[in-house]
Specification:
Shape: globular
Family: Belongs to the fatty acid desaturase CarF family.
Subcellular location: Membrane
Largest sheet: 2 strands, antiparallel
Order of helices and strands: EEHHHHHHHHHHHH
Radius of gyration: 21 Å
Number of strands: 2
InterPro entries: Lipid_desat, Plasmalogen_desaturase
Keywords: Membrane, Transmembrane, Transmembrane helix
GO biological process, one term: ether lipid biosynthetic process
Helix content: 55-70%
Oligomer: single chain
């Protein structure tokens, strides 16, 4: 980070500059986003084709379960990246130093990695639609709705996280979803950014943050891992803060 002054010593601002990704990474993100959203459209069309009125209760349950699963997985990954090791977590640690940096990423950079992660399950779903019999697809439609909801919310997790740090210029429909806590609200996510960043890890909807905190879920996992390995959670936080200064 560099401190820039203008006019007099009291007028200073701090800017952080982090390494940019190479061209190959950018190409991978573009391809992932294009393939991901193409498969999402294809699978969504086919899901609508096989939906029946009698599926309604199981579909509602499946969608809700998919969203809950995505929220839990976002928390598990976020907790692991924030808490242990230092090899693959540079963006997470930098995010704690400069939380608004994510708002300066474009759509491709924000969502490319998550799109890449969902390509295999999306391709598997598409394969089922072109190879399974109509009878088999009818029977598995509620399950596929669960998987589809899970994929959609995993795909959009980084975008939702970016919106939770964006305080100006958000579309009204995004603010509506945040205000009704359908996606991660801005005020809710600020709790995580209070040092030492040891709570409220779920960043898709945030629905699970309060119950997981009340039962001490993350602290329990940390105690188990520390007991097995001797490693202390977030032991290198100070090193990262000094490294980025």
């Amino acid at each position: 980070c560099q401190t820039n002054g203008a006019g007099h010593p009291g007028n200073k601002s701090k800017t952080c500059s982090f390494p940019s990704f190479p061209t190959g990474k950018r190409l991978q993100e573009w391809i992932s986003v294009i393939l991901c959203f193409s498969l999402i459209c294809f699978n969504f069309y086919n899901l609508l084709f096989y939906l029946r009125l009698e599926h309604t209760p199981s579909i509602i349950v499946g969608i809700f379960a998919g969203v809950i699963t995505a929220d839990f997985l976002s928390g598990l990954f976020h907790w692991g990246a924030d808490t242990w090791g230092s090899a693959f977590i540079r963006p997470f640690r930098e995010h704690h130093i400069d939380p608004t940096a994510i708002t300066r990423h474009d759509f491709i950079e924000t969502n490319g990695d998550n799109c890449f992660m969902t390509l295999v399950p999306l391709a598997n779903m598409a394969y089922k639609f072109v190879s399974f019999s109509p009878e088999a697809l009818y029977e598995t439609c509620p399950w596929e709705c669960y998987v589809f909801a899970l994929i959609i919310f995993i795909t959009m997790t980084n975008q939702i996280h970016k919106w939770s740090h964006t305080y100006f210029g958000l579309p009204r429909w995004v603010i509506f979803l945040q205000d009704w806590h359908i996606i991660l609200p801005r005020k809710h996510h600020r709790i995580h950014h209070v040092s030492p960043h040891e709570t409220y890890f779920c960043i898709t909807t945030g629905w699970l943050n309060y119950p997981l905190e009340k039962i001490g879920f993350w602290r329990c996992l940390e105690n188990i891992i520390q007991g097995l390995t001797g490693e202390k959670p977030r032991a290198d936080d100070m090193k990262w803060a000094q490294k980025i200064k």
